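R.M. (postdoc): so does anyone remember the format we settled on? I'll just put the structure tokens first.
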């Protein structure tokens, strides 16, 4: 039996009655754009994140783009982003006309740090996007402090961190605005593209809503006050998200239990796990191990039917559109990109499945140690 990297089927199986009810409700309501299902999810998601407002949008990328635009980030501005992130974090900055400035990450957590931000500050820096990568919250206390001193805005890319906490407060609610993706495989995933922005700033929330809804600011659908596109969350996705949100905490807890079992099983092997800060409570969107023998381990696992991934093999500053920017070497990010391997991780991953992955890794590590000893590598 193959072990997939992510298995959405068992989540949807667990919830099949509620999911049928959710889309049946939207079908009979006849309200497919906006309306009660969207309003309900926005209220629930704001409450969950501990913020006053939530604007549902069409994707995580749209959440980032709309937030930057609503903050007035523009050409000539620089926005600091970690180089170790999904491409969308950086491309959203470019969409607003601003320039992403890539920062290196911490070697233990692989996350942006206050020091990393400080090193990239210039007179042009307008904002920093902190990415809670792999579901692990960055040190927001330290980053918010540096940003306040520098007079720049802090935004969170919490697309992998639904429900993660820093000092007991949920990701997304730890800065001016938190951007979420509900891409199907995220910890809270829709049945298509979807996203949201959460914030305590009423004016910012209204501006984001207008920029995502053809510039409509008031209740009049024929009045347009901003030049803006269409980046709305639709009602079907909102209804699915409300149904799945009820399970999010239980599913995140299951992910943490899986990490615990992985960590115990893998101790003693020449693999490094990503560290969790004592003030952080991660939600393990991904289960990362670091190894100098990544290709060999990945191949050995594939032979035993275990799917793995790499998040991400090419750091952002090394992607084609950013090569011209000639970012200086980012030592930790570049080294990590050669070592990171994502193991199967999803809430319904069974103990037996984890043990099979662990045993496969033990065999693979022994085999590569034997090769080193024999001088064949
Ligand atoms: C998934 C993701 C995004 C983009 O979200 P989409 O909904 O796919 O547009 C942005 N940043 C990070 C860190 C992500 O993981």
């Amino acid at each position: 039996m193959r072990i997939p990297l992510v298995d959405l089927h068992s989540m949807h199986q667990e919830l099949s009655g509620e999911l049928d009810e959710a889309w049946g409700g939207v079908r009979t309501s006849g309200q497919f754009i906006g309306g009660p299902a969207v309003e309900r999810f926005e209220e629930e998601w704001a409450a969950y994140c501990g913020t006053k407002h939530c604007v549902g949008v069409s994707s995580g990328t749209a959440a980032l783009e709309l937030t930057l635009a609503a903050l007035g980030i523009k050409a000539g501005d620089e926005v600091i982003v970690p180089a170790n992130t999904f491409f969308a974090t950086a491309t959203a900055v470019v969409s607003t006309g601003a320039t992403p400035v890539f920062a290196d990450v911490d070697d233990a957590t692989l996350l942006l740090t206050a020091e990393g931000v400080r090193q990239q500050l210039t007179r042009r820096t307008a904002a920093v996007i902190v990415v809670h990568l792999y579901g692990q919250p960055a040190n927001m206390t330290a980053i918010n402090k540096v940003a306040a001193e520098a007079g720049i805005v802090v935004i969170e890319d919490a697309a992998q961190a639904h429900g993660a906490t820093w000092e007991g407060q949920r990701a997304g609610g730890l800065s001016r605005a938190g951007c979420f993706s509900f891409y199907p495989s995220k910890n809270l995933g829709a049945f298509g593209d979807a996203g949201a922005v959460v914030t305590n700033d009423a004016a910012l929330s209204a501006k984001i809503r207008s920029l995502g809804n053809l510039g409509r600011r008031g209740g009049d659908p024929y009045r347009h006050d901003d030049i803006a596109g269409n980046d709305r969350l639709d009602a079907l996705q909102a209804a699915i998200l409300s149904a799945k949100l009820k399970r999010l905490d239980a599913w995140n807890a299951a992910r943490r239990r899986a990490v615990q079992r992985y960590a115990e099983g893998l101790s003693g092997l020449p693999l490094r796990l990503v560290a969790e800060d004592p003030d952080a409570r991660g939600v393990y969107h991904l289960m990362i191990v670091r190894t100098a023998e990544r290709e060999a381990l990945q191949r050995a696992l594939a032979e035993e039917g275990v799917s793995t991934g790499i998040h991400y093999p090419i750091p952002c500053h090394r992607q084609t559109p950013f090569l011209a920017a000639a970012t200086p070497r980012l030592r930790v990010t570049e080294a990590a990109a050669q070592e990171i391997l994502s193991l199967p991780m999803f809430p319904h991953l069974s103990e037996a499945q984890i043990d099979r992955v662990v045993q496969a890794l033990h065999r693979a590590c022994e085999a590569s140690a034997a090769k080193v000893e024999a001088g064949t590598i």
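R.M.: ...and that's the designed sequence above, right after the tokens. Also worth knowing: The CA atoms of residues 53 and 205 lie 7 Å apart. The mean pLDDT is 96.
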